[in-house]
Amino acid sequence: MAQPHTAHDQPATTDQPSPEHRRDLERWRTTYDLLAAAARQDATAQARWAAEDRHGDERCAEMREILQDLTLRRDVRAFADAVAAWGGRPGPFAQFAPSGPAWLHQLVEASAGHERDLADLFVAVCRTPDGDDEAAALIRALEDVARTGGHTTTPVLPVLSVFWTTDRAAQWPVAWSPAVASFLTLGWMGRHMTHAERYIAFAQLCRGLASHDPREAERLMVYLEAAGPFVGVGSGLPQTCDEAAELMDEHQPMRGYPRAESEARAAGLAGQLRGAATLLTRSLHRPLEQATGLRLRETNLQTRVGTGRDAPFRADLHATWSLPGDAGAPALRLWVTRSGVAVGLHAGWPGAGHVGVGAEDRQARIAAAVQRHLPPEVQFLAVDGAATADRVSPAGRSYPGGEIFVGRWWPHPEALDRADVAQDLLATARAVTPLVDVLAGHDPTPTGPADLELLAHLEQFRVGRPYPTERDGWHEEQRRSLAAHLDPDGLDAFDLASFRRLVTGRAYGAVGSHSVLQAALAGLDAPGLDRLAGALKTLLWGSGSDAERIDAVLSDPPVPGLGETVVMKLMAVVHPARYLPVYPLGGADGKVALARVLGVDLPETSDTTRARLHLTASARLRARLEPLLPGDPWGQVQFARWLLHRGEAVADPDRDLIAEAAADLLVDEDFLREVHGLLEDKKQVVFYGPPGTGKTFLAQRFAAALQPDSTKRAVVQFHPSTSYEDFFEGFRPRLDAQGQMVYELRKGPLALLAEAAEADPTTPHVMVIDEINRANLPRVFGELLYLLEYRSSSVLTSYRPDEGFELPPNLLFIGTMNTADRSIALVDAALRRRFHFVPFMPHEGPMEGLLLRWLSAHDGPVWVAELVDRVNEELRHALRGPHLQIGHSHFMVDQLDDAALQRIWNYSIYPFIEDQFYGREDLLRTFTWAAVLERHGPTGSTRPLPPA
User: Region Disordered: start and end of each range (predicted)?
Assistant: First the structure.
């Protein structure tokens, strides 16, 4: 029997497409048109594209000049630098940076001594191809050079297609990874292709779908992968079901398909139906949860009806969102056949999950209860369990027997080609939601004393944390996206970029830096990528027990640095029903710590392997938490961590840390509480004033009062060279094991503290930014300026184009600003609006009299306080402003005798005054220590103020 394959696993060719492919294209276009209509209604997407298009012609012209310069000069290093600078400019090619330029630079560095040959190659491959065959040849040429040099070939397609698409007269779309991923998910492209074959198939699809410019299809496919909107049910789907049904009629039990061509076509159509089901499942997941209040779990659609290689390929599709439980647990289901569309609540086959005597009687009792409580707007839907084309049909308000499925039915074409059909689907889901408990046949509410105590904590968690937030939903969306790249088909077309995002990103929980693994991934060649993909496929989907597979990959990792936290995240992403998203075993937030706070016993670590420890701990934690937050592993871990840190937060509730700080700092307690209120308002404040007024000292002491745990505080100091990459994150060069220059994404202090704050959202995390005004603030903060004001939003940052970043609301900023160096009036207006500014002036407010209080408390010469106050009065008069006064901290030292006073004045105070009155010797003489001591010392007399 021939090996099944999709209808699109075909080599790159300029031949006319087959009749089947033309037929498929017409059907796909119905879904594509719905997607285009949804994008037109998306104001955010339209605004973003309009902004990109404003720079489109300019970026294209610049790239043509760069390519022309390469042709003339053959300077490949200058070419790589120019491309890197070009990729960072605004326009429609923002996705190109930073991975594209970084890959080019790696090729250039590896070509040392042969730069001219590489330049000649790029001149050849960057020219606009005359047709598909030439494009395929150019892709293979660049791929061969990259593979020979030991570099990944993944960026070949986006890099070359970016160069080609800037030739506006050509029809070459850019093969962005998200766009290719959308076609693969939908089943419109085959997965088992070379790079050249994949790009030609991609380009032909874009040309066939878009009416004028294939770049429109490229853009819409990127939009589909990123936004995942529900667009409706295209009228081409029933046609696909109909053709698949005709092929199903040829299938013979126990013998299969009589012709290899029929089996191959049936497999291709089943892949398309599964792709359509995947799109429907993903796009409706969040709306269904919001409409019903249920926590739902997506279920993948199988391509065959039944088990075994001789089972027929399906001729229908259903998108399924199951509730927690066994195989008989209820699920919301959207079913599409060649006859109609159904949506409703499905209970599985008779006796599912309750095999044994009385199972069918139990099913009948549940069906009778459903019939008694059936909402008026829904009916029973009969489900044919056999491999038939029309598996669902309306059955009225009486139970027809078999599987229980209640909902609504729309015969074709009532529900087709309508974006607004979502309203009908969601309304039906809301209508059947009250039947969930009836279909389940049991009450899952926990009743034990320990569970009831946790239930009380759970209510506090929902309100106090709170849970769930939009960010929690984002984590689940990211898990589904990552899981799609790790399914068996996804691993056959291994996407290294997605795997690195899983390792380095925060989506569905961070696993740490893993620099060894990142370095190893950066140096993988094509055979190494194949080995990694094969090992991951065995780990996630292989035979044998999970523990055996995990221990095997840990003992012999396919790449250096693939440790247990990464492995456990892979398992949790792919199998959320079995693994909790908590990846370390030990540590402050590991499985052992969570087990301790939940009262869960774990086995002795010496009795078993690491894999079995992880599996046992995860299973016991899940058993404890599942009744509380059914089917929600992310929420279960967030609750457990909240409970853990809540215990830390209330360890000593009688201490008033702010009052203690005020006493230590000798400032009014009300002042610190007012600053605390300002922080709660905007989340960030700036202390500004003359040097030496204790801004930094008070900021650090106040931060310690807000957060006693030093691991949840950070101090950074800005300077004129501070950059976005220093503060937040950026690519940094380093040498790999072979001595080659590579780039890795390195997190700065803000990214690290933000991750810690997000992982522990119930306690404040504080960053003190000293000398905040010394840096170029718009350059340092970049797009993070937006997040300072809109904490509940996320943005795609410069180095996270595929993963949104947000500043957690429990991350607080305290900046200090020396106004002697730079006037507060010069601070960027956008920053002024986002911070509260608190003045620190020696003569007024909370700092007034501080030096006197300190000297009195430390048995110091209290007359010094009056001397400093009088000199500051003279300085304010002479300089017509308060920002160049003498700070009190100069004199807040022990053993302040006459010699120490003179030394402080001569070497700290007088040089500062000298800067302000440079060239005015007559005035400077009045501020020498001798003159000041005579004028304001303990035996001196008060004299008139020096002339201004």
Answer: 1-22
Question: CA-CA distance, 590 to 583, in Å (whole number)?
Answer: 7
Tokens of 417: 């080609």
Longest Cα separation, the chain: 116
| Residue 454 phi, psi dihedral angles, 5° rounding | -65, -35
- Asked if omega into 653 is within 30° of 0 (cis), the reply is no
Please choose, from the candidates 856, 872, 851, the residue with its C-alpha nearest in 3D space to the C-alpha of residue 932. 872
CA distance 806 to 790: 9
Q: What is the per-residue pLDDT for 357?
A: 38
What is the bridge-based pairing of β-strands 765-770 and 811-818? parallel
Q: Is residue 467 within 8 Å of 635, Cβ to Cβ?
A: yes
More confident residue, 736 or 437: 437
Please, are residues 892 and 868 in contact by the beta-carbon 8 Å criterion?
A: no
Q: Give the span between the Cα atoms of 52 and 215, in whole angstroms.
A: 13
CA 307 → CA 27, 299, 304, 443, 537, distances in Å?
Answer: 28, 17, 7, 33, 21
Q: How far is CA 226 from CA 52, 355, 478, 551, in A?
A: 17, 42, 10, 35
- pTM here is 0.51
Specify the CATH number for 271-440; select among 2.40.400.10, 1.10.10.60, 3.30.930.20, 1.10.1060.10: 3.30.930.20
String of DSSP letters for 10-79: -----SPPPHHHHHHHHHHHHHHHHHHHHHHH-HHHHHHHHHHHHTHHHHHHHHHHHHHHHHHH--HHHH
Which run of H or E residues covers position 515? Answer: helix 515-522
Of 164, 315, 162, 166, nearest to 251 by C-alpha is 315
Taking each continuous run of H as one helix and of E as one strand, the counts in the chain are 41, 16
- Residue 255 backbone phi and psi in degrees, to 5: -120, -20
Q: What residues does 335 pair with on adjacent strands? A: 318, 342
Residue 707 has pLDDT above 80, yes or no: yes
Q: How many CA atoms lie within 13 A of 418 on its CB side?
A: 13
Mean pLDDT, the chain, rounded, equals 84
Structure tokens at 274: 């599964």
Return the structure tokens found at 109: 């560095």
Q: What is the pLDDT of residues 537-595, one digit of tens each?
A: 999 988 777 888 898 999 999 998 898 999 999 999 988 877 899 999 888 889 999 99
* Distance in angstroms (rounded) separating the CA atoms of residues 385 and 843: 85
Same fold, 271-440 and 657-839: no
DSSP 926: G
Going by C-alpha positions, the residue among 303, 312, 308 that lies closest to residue 256 is 312
- CA–CA distance, 461 with 649 (Å, rounded to integer): 14
Domain borders along the chain are 19-229, 271-440, 449-649, 657-839, 848-936
The listed range with the strongest mean pLDDT (128-142, 326-340, 472-486, 754-768) is: 128-142
Determine the distance from the C-alpha atom of residue 310 to the mean position of all C-alpha atoms in its chain, rounded to a whole number: 41
Give the C-alpha separation, 841 to 847, whole Å: 6
**pLDDT tens readout for residues 509-530:** 888 777 788 778 878 888 889 8
Sign of CA dihedral 186, 188, 190, 194: negative
- Which CATH number does 657-839 carry? 3.40.50.300
Point out which residues pair with 341 in neighbouring strands.
Answer: 336, 410
Cβ atoms of residues 288 and 332 within 8 Å: yes
Cβ contacts of residue 482 below 8 Å, gap of 6+?
A: 498, 501, 502, 507, 508, 573
Give the contacts of 578 (CB within 8 A, at least 6 positions apart).
546, 571, 618, 619, 622
The predicted pLDDT at position 324 comes to: 66
Return the structure tokens found at 797: 């940052």
Would you tell me how many other CB atoms lie within 10 Å of the CB of residue 747? 17
Distance between CA atoms of residues 780 and 722, nearest Å = 7
- Partners of 321 in beta bridges: 298, 332
Classify residue 386 by burial, with Cβ atoms within 10 Å: 0-12, 13-18, 19+. Answer: exposed
- The Cα 21–Cα 1 span in angstroms is 23
